[in-house]
Amino acid sequence: MLALLISMVLRYSEEDHYTFASAFHIPTYLFMSLVVAMFLGLTNSADEIIRDRAMLNRERNHNLRTFYYITGKVLALGTFALVQCVIYLLIGNWMLELRDMFFIHLWWMFATALTGAILGLFISSLVHDSRTALNIIPLLLIPQIILGGALIKYEEMNKNLDLVYSISKFVKADEQGGDSSKLKVPFICQFMPLRWSYEAMLISQARFNPLTRSQDLLESRIQQIVEKPGELTEQERNTLDLTKQALAVVSGLQAKEPNDVPKHLENVREHAVHGTLTQEMLDYVQRERKATSAEELYVNRKVLDLVTKAEMEREDYRRERSPNVFFGTTRKYPFVKWTSDAEKLRNHASWLGFYIDYYEVKTIHLNAFVILFSLVLIIASVQFSLKRQLTKV
Predict the structure, then answer these.
(1) C-alpha angle with apex 57: 54 to 62, nearest 5 degrees?
(2) Whole-angstrom distance, CA of residue 78 vs CA of residue 18
(3) Are residues 110 and 186 in the same domain?
(4) pTM
(5) Which of 169, 200, 205 shows the shortest CA–CA distance to 374?
(6) Do 106 and 75 reside in the same domain of the chain?
(7) 286-297, pLDDT tens digit by residue?
(8) Is there a contact between 108 and 204 (Cβ–Cβ < 8 Å)?
(9) In terms of Cα–Cα distance, which of 127, 109, 93, 314 is closest to 197?
(10) Residues 246 and 267 in one domain
(11) Would you place residue 230 in the very low, low, confident or very high pLDDT band (cuts 50, 70, 90)?
């Protein structure tokens, strides 16, 4: 019912007839899907330990293993959350015509639902009344909705929420240099699970759809051939020409039936990976004209605009350093490094051979790590809280 309600309300296109490419509310749908996952996870588990408290108190004298109890709860709640996420996405993605992204969306939605379920267990371990637990849920959910980056854009949010901005304003530092950016995530928002899963889900939609994935693979293949040391052989030059042509074919790919588009993309990817591209195969793939295009099926303009804006901000050559911005595909973090190379030390502010370097990490990997780390941390907190209560005399 939630999937039907949300997808039907958000099924709006700026064109005369609805298409995924021109759909106006796809970012909102992705965020609302995560809100639903978090809400269901919280409500499913908020009174689990409260209902079992009498049993837990009775069995604590029999050396109850809290870790096994919590593991059982997480597995049961996780299974139920997975079923809910599957049903929701089958309906919502079908209504809004999000194709071939089901498992990627399911991963982020399920991770969010599991986070909510474990947060609910933590609430349940702290209070003794179901009504109190249910009253705490809005206190956890509403701040995440407000600070998640969808309802209020970070560039339009109170800048004093950003600790770095507040400190720099206090000491009257120069705000124009360094990595200052309006698209940076305020400090307090970094503690919102929905902020991490929403960013990851939207970037996944922009970068991991079949069309963009095929384009990235072909571009990477071209780069590998071009950067190969030495002069290219006749066969390598032929492969390079075919790969460039394949990239053009994929970017303008069309087919009479929408279901044929992913088959053609997969066909081109497989041949590109194995180096078996032929002119006949490319001619066969691009034989259709004035039909459904791959771009219409997989590239939503609103999603693309958000990611493109972040990338333009991140790659602005006028900045000394690339800022870490919301929806940026990569992030850079400083770390201390030592070297005896005098040339490197001359290019950095150094002391006794130590200098600051920057480590680049993909945003998707970072977000997945943060979510998994949060799950482990919350589970540990639940176990500590439950064990502490059961050991009271």
Answers:
(1) 130
(2) 35
(3) yes
(4) 0.87
(5) 200
(6) yes
(7) 887 667 888 999
(8) yes
(9) 109
(10) yes
(11) confident
